[in-house]
Amino acid sequence: MTTDHSPIDAPFGSWATDRILSDMQPNRSVHRVGHGYVSVFEERYVFKVFHDEDPSEPLLIRPKVGHELRMMLIAGSDSVRLIGRLFDNTKQKLIGFIMPYEQALAPGVNIGGEPGERAKFSKEQKREIIDKLCRLIERLQARQIIHGDVKPSNLLLCSDGQVRLCDWALASVNGDNFIAYAVSDHYASCRRCCLPQEPLALEEDLYATGVSIWEIWMEKVPFEDVEEDIVDELVMGGIRPDLQAVDDPEIAALIKSYLDAGPVCSNKPGQTRTVCTQVDVTFNNCRATPAHVETRVVKCYHCQDPDATQQCAEPFRLPNVLVDSSSPVCPKCNPIYVGWRC
């Protein structure tokens, strides 16, 4: 199969690699959601099928096969290779496309498909993958391309050793005012969770890259122990993956640099709409053994409301923080400085 082709909307047969759905049998499903599915054919190819819009749900925005194909072609070699188009069995309707079967850096969320296992890499392999990821994002940023859903399950370690992105359904070119119809909360910036109806900024991919590096290094999804329905609450409060858990200072600094390069959000750090947060703070100049600990609680907007009838039963605990205090000594070591803050 080759990649030489005519325009995206050309009739069936215009691409030498055009296929119909019945050609892709038998296959096995690896990902299935309401708007379509992804299946593997001959253990060499993956094809993605888009379902028709449901007239009973006119407000439900679904991904468009033409849009994703366009963005894959714009991204070129930074996208997973586009092998061919996929039509329905009448050869009249474009319903999807075909790609090579490559290794994802992490399993995706599967509904009715294979659960998948996370690929295992040594620390040196992780560093090499992370470096390739950073170069990939640099190239896309230079070309003003926004992927919109950077995360390890959309990052492929291809057979030629390169790292490429798949799933371009939320992608856009900076300035075209495309509104992403969905968001992956675990990898989203505070701004994106607060303003989901705004066009994506280039910086969104930088923030998501920082979170992705964290996941690649830690081998787990950020906030995996948090209930799904409050992840966006924590993100809107400016809460980030735990950098203290990263055992390599250079990797931790790299992650922080990408997170810091994300879009600006005006929310107060740690403050969410409905989840109070708590953090234990120790000071670098504390003389006590064990060191003094100051517990700080940031009440959510709901609990700050004097008319609220219910309060959070227990705040969400954030990773402990070591603070460079602005006072000459630890505020708890010397009561004179108890009112001082870092």
UniProtKB/TrEMBL annotation:
A Pfam family matched in the record: Pkinase
Membrane spanning stretches: none
InterPro entries linked: Kinase-like_dom_sf (IPR011009), Prot_kinase_dom (IPR000719), Ser/Thr_kinase_AS (IPR008271), Ser/Thr_Kinases-Pseudokinases (IPR051681)
Domain of life: Eukaryota
Protein kinase domain ranges (all copies): 6-283
PANTHER family in the record: SERINE/THREONINE-PROTEIN KINASE TNNI3K-RELATED
Official protein name in the record: Kinase-like domain-containing protein
